[in-house]
Design a protein that fits this description.
3 domains, seven-stranded mixed sheet, 15 helices, five-stranded antiparallel sheet, elongated
Amino acid sequence: MYDTNKYEDCSFDSALTHARNNGLTWLPWVGANYAKRKRRFLIVGESHYTNEKNESKRQIDIERISNYENFTRDVIFECQYNRDWNTPFFANLNRTLVTSDSINKENLWKEFAFYNFVQRLLTYNENLKERPSNEDFASGWRVFCDIIRVLKPTECLFIGVTAANYFNDAMATLGIEHTKVDYVGYFNRTRMKKASISINGLTTNILFIRHTSCYFSWPIWHDKVKSFFPDTISNLCQISEVKYIDQDNVESEPVQSLKFTERIPKHLAHKPIIACSMPEVAVPGSVDASSDAKFISVGRAQYNKDEASVKVFRHTGGRWSRQSEEVPIYRISYMMQVFLAAIIRIQAETPQLFQSDANEEIVAPYDIEFLRIQFNEHRKDIIKGLESVQDLLSQINLDKI
């Protein structure tokens, strides 16, 4: 699949046999340079998830992934090396470590080890939002101690603070020498905590911070983590100083110089399936020819590759903009409803008397005239678009959707 010797160190695998017999489901990622460092840095995430809604398929996912020991390693490689997909968890983790996600990730992830604390595949979808159980955390600390014995990290960063609630009791039960969890401070709506353990004469200092997946202020946490592990974080920042071009801001060929299928970006998180040029690209000299909006795509959503979305790609200053709009496909019809209802309302003598199934309301009656002016200004383009929509609607078989 990939050259493991170049990116990761698998020499610890045989020594992890006891851990695998004691609850370790997925082998940890160990960077190729991890063992060479005087300070060995271990990062601990929380859980792996499946978002499969179909119960039979979900069980297949659980069985398949639970029996694949390299799953964590594949996730790291796909996110940090191949850039097949990304999540706020990893993007914010990288920013916490080195203040940016636009760095040489190949170098960065060679420097430390990583695994997820909960060694059971959880489910997270609209029907089931599973959280780790008490047993998951108890088992997690048992596996953690086995990993410490093998990887011998001197410093450990936990992404998430929940495991800290189980630390003291778990260490007492396991008979591990430790300093109890201590409250360090309250930042970004989270109680940062610290602790340490000593196994076979090696002390590992542990820091617990807010989970990086959401509502996460990475500048705050970068400063806190750096203050706790100053040499390690400084070293990671130095190693990551040589940057490569961020794929989300990649310099590209002039947009007009290539064929459409070559111009539309295929390397970004949103993956186009069916797409078109924006009119201002296809028809130079139109009313909005200077717009940075270049393409509209229906494809795999950047926020979830298993969902579809409609996206406007924007190209500004020689790069693809991160500010491009993206909307789930099921919301497009709602948007069209409100748009059409707005046209009907501004055409009516008494706009307040009309309401569509969208249940829209007039929020700013004093600005109705503004909309009339705008619709009139763009009347030709709007009519052309609506005529096309009307024609397409006549060809759609609703029974097949």
